[in-house]
Design a protein that fits this description.
Layout (H helix, E strand, L loop, with lengths): L2 H28 L6 H22 L9 H10 L1 H13 L8 H19 L1 H4 L15 H27 L2 H25 L11 H18 L10 H6 L4 E6 L4 E4 L1 H7 L11 H5 L18 E6 L6 E10 L5 E10 L1 H28 L10 H17 L4 E8 L2 H8 L1 H18 L5 E6 L2 E7 L3 H16 L2 E2 L6 E2 L2 E8 L6 H17 L5 E3 L6
Parallel strand pairs: 11-12
Antiparallel strand pairs: 1-2, 1-5, 3-4, 4-5, 6-8, 6-11, 7-8, 9-10
Length: 529
């Protein structure tokens, strides 16, 4: 076969390659949920465009200039190595690295190369010095070749590492995918170094097509669903609990519909990604799969970023019969309603505790004056006396009784009487110190416990209260009136060492003040030794 006949034949082959590459792209796109399917589809489209332009260049198709289809062909050529590199990242579980920044970086060289091709007559950086039989061989071409092979080598390293470290279930698939690289590279090497009788013919499209078929076969022939029992649809999809299945590299390989709804993600957004990356929006509550115990697993309560939803997440390792870890299964359940009921129960308990405390407080307080009542007085006085005895300290109490209070009630009514009682209680409350305890002892009588207060200090303080109370005016129908109180003060240990002895001593001192003319403070008599 002459070179001309072979070129005519090979141009037809390129059109066939174009159709086959497009079929690969369609199949890959229909299964775009599989890791690496999208970049495989893009690579097949690039290869189809490459073959189409190359076939038109070899044929007698109409062209605006002699090398028009040859130049346009490189739009597809530059897509292949970049998309193969992205494919290797997604397939190996590194899909989180594929972002806008990476795509932008991968576009720089293709754009510069195509600019140099279309402006080549000005600098000949792509085609090389004039006079070459083959219009390829300039600096730009070899830089492009080095760049493309760098991407392919990087992809090969990524796929090789994944093949060596992935679970046995994926090892055959990974090995076949890895073989796609040398298949594509060998055809390109044959072309670059002119190892055929037809040095002007580019055999790279054939190698790329064979590689695409290899990748498609491996990706879809050994897909996860072939490893899952027939009952998966019934068991997995009908479960209300969300289920995520991960391989031992912590890459999500399957999930049911419930898991997608709970996470707010589609299957295409999760399959092939690391579990940590999918759970990242849940913040610090997200479990670190690295630390999941191989036998015990891990349980976490996840809270969504808005603090509205709660998930109960359980991650357990999948062990084979030899005790080797083959992956993980994560089961999640929406416990938002349960948490809401739990919070409501917590609020109810807090309210009950508050009411109990309130009832307890009301049980020891006088409702009219809000002072402590006689019940608390007895408990507190015994406790303070015991403390004073242990520390060799002192303690004083004051017994206060309103003067002529019965006459006030009889003449002006109980409403004014209540007002007088509250006024005296408010005065005492405003004047006592931290640690002092004021109590309504009964009727118009009040007792104030003054811990750590010596007798003289207690007398002076109660005397000051007496003067302040005497200045208070109370409004009556016949005009303003002033009232007074009488008080007796007793101290530990001078006037007694028990609560009853001190109260009795203060009571007797208060009656002595009454007998002496009222409106005065009297010291209790000392206990005979």
């Amino acid at each position: 076969m002459t070179e001309g006949e072979f070129i005519s034949f090979y141009s037809v082959v390129q059109f066939i390659v174009t159709a086959l590459a497009l079929s690969v792209a369609i199949v890959a796109w229909r299964r775009k949920q599989a890791p690496g399917a999208k970049p495989l589809a893009v690579m097949a489209i690039g290869q189809a465009f490459w073959s189409l332009c190359y076939g038109l260049q070899l044929s007698s198709a109409v062209r605006p200039e002699p090398l028009f289809w040859f130049k346009l062909m490189f739009v597809g050529v530059v897509i292949v190595p970049a998309s193969f590199f992205v494919f290797s990242l997604e397939y190996s579980g590194r899909g989180h690295l594929v972002n806008r920044r990476l795509i932008s970086l991968l576009l720089i060289e293709p754009v510069l190369l195509n600019l140099s091709i279309w402006t080549d007559p000005l600098h000949r950086l792509f085609s090389g010095p004039p006079g070459q039989k083959i219009a390829v061989g300039g600096v730009a071409f070899w830089l492009h070749s080095a760049y493309s092979y760098s991407l392919l080598i990087a992809a090969g390293v990524i796929l090789f590492i994944y093949w060596r470290t992935c679970s046995p279930a994926y090892r055959t698939q990974a090995f076949i995918i890895f073989l796609g690289l040398p298949i594509a590279a060998s055809a390109n090497v044959i072309t670059i170094f002119r190892l055929t009788p037809w040095p002007a013919i580019d055999f790279s499209p054939l190698g790329t097509l064979a590689s695409s078929f290899t990748l498609s076969y491996a990706l879809f022939r050994y897909r996860l669903f072939d490893l899952i029992p027939f009952a998966r649809e019934v068991v997995m999809e009908k479960m209300q609990d969300g289920v995520l299945i991960c391989d031992k590299d912590k890459r999500i390989v399957d999930l049911n519909e419930a898991a997608g709804k709970l996470l707010g993600l589609k299957a295409t957004q999760t399959v092939g990604k690391l579990l940590e990356d999918v759970l990242m929006p849940w913040g610090k509550q997200a479990p670190e799969v690295e630390k999941v115990d191989r036998t015990q697993g891990e349980k976490k309560i996840l809270i969504d970023p808005a603090g509205v939803s709660y998930l109960d997440l359980r991650i357990d390792p999948l062990m084979d019969t030899k005790g080797r870890n083959q992956g993980y299964v994560a089961v999640m359940r929406d416990i938002t309603e349960l948490k809401e009921k739990e919070e409501q129960l917590k609020r109810n308990l807090e309210e009950i505790q508050f009411l109990q405390e309130r009832l307890k407080e009301e049980a020891i307080r006088d409702p009219l004056t809000n002072l402590y009542n006689r019940r608390l007085l007895e408990e507190t006085l015994r406790r303070e006396l015991a403390r004073a005895e242990r520390g060799a300290g002192c303690l004083s109490i004051a017994m206060i009784d309103l003067d002529h209070f019965k006459d006030v009630n009889d003449k002006y009514g109980h409403q004014l009487g209540d007002e007088v009682l509250k006024a005296l209680a408010d005065l005492i409350t405003s004047q006592i110190r931290a640690g002092d305890i004021a109590c309504r002892y009964g009727g118009e009588e009040f007792i104030v416990i003054l811990p750590d207060a010596p007798l003289q200090s207690a007398l002076e303080r109660v005397e000051e209260w007496r003067k302040m109370f005497a200045e208070i005016e109370f409004t009556t129908p016949s005009g303003p009136i002033n009232l007074t109180f009488s008080a007796g003060v007793a101290s530990y240990p001078e006037h007694g060492i028990t609560d009853k002895e001190l109260i009795s001593a203060a009571d007797m001192a208060m009656y002595a003040a009454k007998l002496a003319g009222r409106n005065q403070v009297v010291e209790a008599k000392k206990v005979p030794t």
